[in-house]
Amino acid sequence: MRIALFVTCLVDLMRPRIGFAAIRLLEAAGCEVVVPETQTCCGQPAFNSGDRASAALLAKKVIIEFEGYEYVVAPSGSCADQIRNEYPGLLGDDPEWHGRAAALASRVHELTDFLVNVAKLDKLPGEFAGSITYHDSCAGLRSLGIKRQPRALLAKLPGVELREMPGAEECCGFGGTFSVKFGEISAAIAGKKCANACTTEADAIVGGDLGCLLNIEGKLRRMGDEKTRVLHIAEVLAGDR
Amino acid sequence: MQIRSMFFKANASSALANPVLQANLRTSKGKFVDKRRTAVADFQAEGGDFEAMRVAAAEVRNLVLKDLDLWLEKFEAAATARGATVLWAKDGEEICRHVVDIARRHGVKKAVKSKSMLSEEAGLNQALEASGIAPVETDLGEYILQINDNEPPSHIIAPVVHKSLDEVADLFEKVHKKPRKTEIPELTREAREALRQHFLDADMGISGGNFLVAETGSVALVTNEGNGRMVTTLPRVHVVVTGIEKVIPTLEDLSLLLRVLIRSATGQHISNYVSLLTGVKQPAEHDGPEHLYFVLVDNGRADLVASEFQDMLRCIRCGACMNHCPVYQTIGGHAYGWVYPGPMGSVLTPLYQGLDKAIDLPHAATLCNQCGVVCPVRIPLPELLRKLREQQVDKNLRPWLERLALKTWAWVASKPKLYALGTRFGVRYLNWLAGGSDRIRVLGAAPEWTLGRDFPAPEGRTFRELYAARKP
Fold first, then answer.
1. Edge-to-edge, what's the strand order for the sheet holding B218-223?
2. In a 3-state reduction of DSSP, which class is residue A135?
3. CB neighbourhood size of A68 (10 A)
4. Which of A45, A53, A133, A183 could form a disulfide with A202 if both were Cys (CB 3.0 to 4.6 A apart)?
5. Using alpha carbons only, how large is chain A's radius of gyration in Å?
6. For testing the chain B interface, which of A35, A180, A241 should be mutated: the one with the most B CBs within 10 Å?
7. pLDDT for A101
8. How far apart are CA B317 and CA B302, in angstroms?
9. What gap in Å lies between CA A234 and CA B296, rounded to an integer?
10. CA–CA gap between residue B453 and residue B451 (Å, rounded)
11. Which domains are seen in chain A, by residue range?
12. Is the pLDDT of residue B355 over 60?
């Protein structure tokens, strides 16, 4: 199976190791992984800020770069949701582009969803010893139905003890550009998320979207918590190299 | 009501700095969210299908909105046939004029009110007072606000959700001039005693309306305190003030909508009182008003029909969206600056009051869609907020720096070579800011981020660079 990895702009900039972890997982699932070199951003920040023209420009670019692959996988529910569920509507005025967006949409998957439901990955390359609490990111959870998938994968790691936090499905307050437009409110919401996560006393808070994780990590550190690790699910499943 | 939504950010800051409000929000959220969840679970356990009911409820609302004018005419004919008078109000001023006219015509000195958000939109209490008619709020929450210098409500169904028991106890002691009470039952008894004489004295009752039933010309009221029933039955004149979008076809539809409304609002299976007021008092009847008026209000609603915001008119005012909203639950309702807070308010306020008067509101959401999945009539609130953001961009209402930043980002992201170069420098700059540590304490490029949290430092090189270096 030849798949294209949509790295996402945040992983490219902030946490390349998540991208490499995703590659290791996909290869372990028997996929041939291609990383289209010209990829940048899915355009969600522009889309959610009301700049439809910029969002459409980037959407077309993504479609051109990725439509030739059998599957497209992203280590982010938010970006996968943007391509899957928003591109067809965003390009709805143009029949040709709408058709191309719709043809790509159903082949785009969030990483854990792809590993569980398409590639049916059985044996994980990584190992992890410790307790984990899982934060369900909003777009993944409510638009793509990502809930069971990461937990099913974590259950395959014998050293992992999953401890569910109260309000795991509540927003962490990131919200993309919301986090820099309303920093105080965003950080206050993140504070509640961190407090909920910390009640589990888990060694690590794990999630599938880097935006949320940067928000949670930034808040934890500001609150003085230096010990709780904040990790992307791909890092946990693929292990450190 | 004067709009203060332009001060959203400052209002939010003071709300965050208010420990009493923060504590009150924490207590109330659990109640609303847990009770709704339990009510839905109970319904499912009894063999019901809550999701199917949401779909059906949305369909009923859509059916009405498709031919709103016809359903309103049907309602008017049915209500008129039962002796009521139907009046139409274009805006808040017309609401006030109609109600004051009615009061004068019937020699009204005092009016008792049950909850009506439309009267908040219109500032009706102030208009009545200015005409020498005393309005008395009888919903406990609204009463508390009225005796506290006409404070505005902070929630559409729990108007004093922002107040603690202590604050109410202090207020009652001050206003009622009686020994301070500390238990809720004692406080409610004191309010009941204060209100009783008003009910008996009032010449006019004013209520809102949860639904207008077209086939019978009735108004349906959902309440828990019983004050709504007193207001609609004791005084000789009654005025219903409600929005034109509240009409539904039949009593059968009412039973469906009540099931989703009440579970979504308070998590009850049914509210303590569901009242249907149909026509004026007939010769053989013992209670009910001798004169019944409906003031049906547009105030921006008609413009939404057949617009890209029509979905918003399905709203049945349950408050579930704000109860589940991470932003509302962190700052409370007053910060939003007008009658309706939370996600539904962030859509309605710019639409009813003007996009330029509420610049922040469409952006005051993380688009987490908690609101969308609990909405009993399936209003796609995040999508509507995004459409408002698009309108702001189209009308050049956003700050120029934000527009420039977005355009530049998108332009650079569309040029892969330039993007690679930019991000290469970007991560190095961020790493330099972190000064060898794993975090940035003050981020000049996005100062809002580091107001209340750190910004984790990047790894040091972009994925793109590392991937290119790795390739054979």
1. B247-248, B211-213, B218-223, B273-277
2. strand
3. 12
4. A133
5. 17
6. A180
7. 98
8. 18
9. 56
10. 6
11. 2-118 (3.40.50), 130-238 (3.40.50)
12. yes
B331 to chain A: which residues are within 8 Å by CB?
185
Token duo for residue B204: 């006019």
Closest C-alpha among B130, B127, B147 to residue B138:
B147
Over residues B101-115, mean pLDDT:
97
In contact, A143 and B369? CB cutoff 8 Å: yes
Q: Note the pLDDT tens digit of each residue in A84-102.
A: 999 999 999 999 999 999 9
Shortest alpha-carbon distance between residue A153 and chain B (Å): 24
Q: Over range B71-83, report the average pLDDT.
A: 98
Partners of A160 in beta bridges? A130
Give φ, ψ of B454 to 5 degrees. -85, 165
**Residue A51 tokens, joined:** 């700049």
- The Cα–Cα gap between A235 and A111 comes to 12
pLDDT for the residue numbered B471: 64
**pLDDT average, residue stretch A122-151:** 97
All domains in chain B, ordered by first residue: 18-302 (3.40.50.10420), 400-470 (no CATH)
What DSSP state is assigned to residue B358?
Answer: -
CB-CB under 8 Å, B451 with A183:
yes
For residue B52 the two structure tokens come to 């199917």
B142, B163 in Cβ contact below 8 A? no
- CB contact A180 to B (< 8 Å): yes
Q: How many CA atoms lie within 13 A of A66 on its CB side?
A: 34
Secondary structure in 3-state letters for A40-98: CCCCHHHHHCCCHHHHHHHHHHHHHHHCCCCEEEECCHHHHHHHHHHHHHHCCCCHHHH
Beta bridge partners of B293: B85, B239
- Is the CB of A13 less than 8 angstroms away from the CB of B416? no
Asked if A14's CB is within 8 angstroms of B459's CB, the reply is yes
Please report the DSSP string for B221-254 in residue order: EEESSSHHHHHHHSSSEEEEEEEGGGEES-HHHH
Residue A201 backbone class (left: φ over 0; alpha: ψ -120 to 50; beta: rest): left
Name the residue facing A183 among B402, B406, B448 (closest C-beta). B448
